[in-house]
Amino acid sequence: YQRRVHGHDVLILEDDPYIWLTLESGGDPIPSYFSMDTEQRVLRCDSFSKVLSPGLRLGWVSGPAELVENVQLDMQATSMHATGLAQGIVQELLVGLGTEGWNAHLKQAQDVYRKKRDFFLRLCDEHLKPYAHWRCPTAGMFVWFELIGVKDSSKLIEEKALI
Fold first, then answer.
1. Parallel, antiparallel, or unpaired: how do β-strands 132-134 and 59-62 relate?
2. What is the DSSP string of 120-159?
3. According to the model, what pLDDT value does residue 106 have?
4. Model pTM?
C-alpha cells in the first residue's frame, strides 16, 4: 500500500462489507487499507447488511473528516439519509449486545457463512472439478472460478448462461 500511493495524489475508496466475514477459525480480518493509511488518503465504507440483515442497507463511512463531510452532504442531497428506524434499531441492538455480544454475534454469523461456503465447495468438488479450478475463500461470500481450457468466458456466458 505505502509503496503504491505514497507521493502520489491518489485517493482510495475501500468498500469492504465482508471484513466481518473472516471464515477461518481464529482468523483475523485481512488488514484494510484504512488501517494502513498514514496520509489521510483512504475513505472506507462498511455495512451491517452482511452480518445483521441483508435488507437493512445501513452502513457507515470512515476517513478524513473533509471527505466524510462531503459524503454526508451528498447523502443529504441524494437520499436524505438512511432510514431513522433502521438506525435506531441498530443502535439499540449494538448497545444491548455490547462488545462481547457483538463479537459472539459475529462468530455466529461467520459460522453460518462458513457452513454455506463449505456446502457450496462440496458441490463444486462433486460437479465442477473437470471444468474449473477454484480456491477456498478465507473471507467473504464469493468463489472465483477459472474455467479449464477457456481463455475468455464472455461468449460462453452469452450463449449458455444468459437467457
1. unpaired
2. HHHHHHHHTTTTEEE---SBSS---EEETT-S--HHHIII
3. 92
4. 0.79
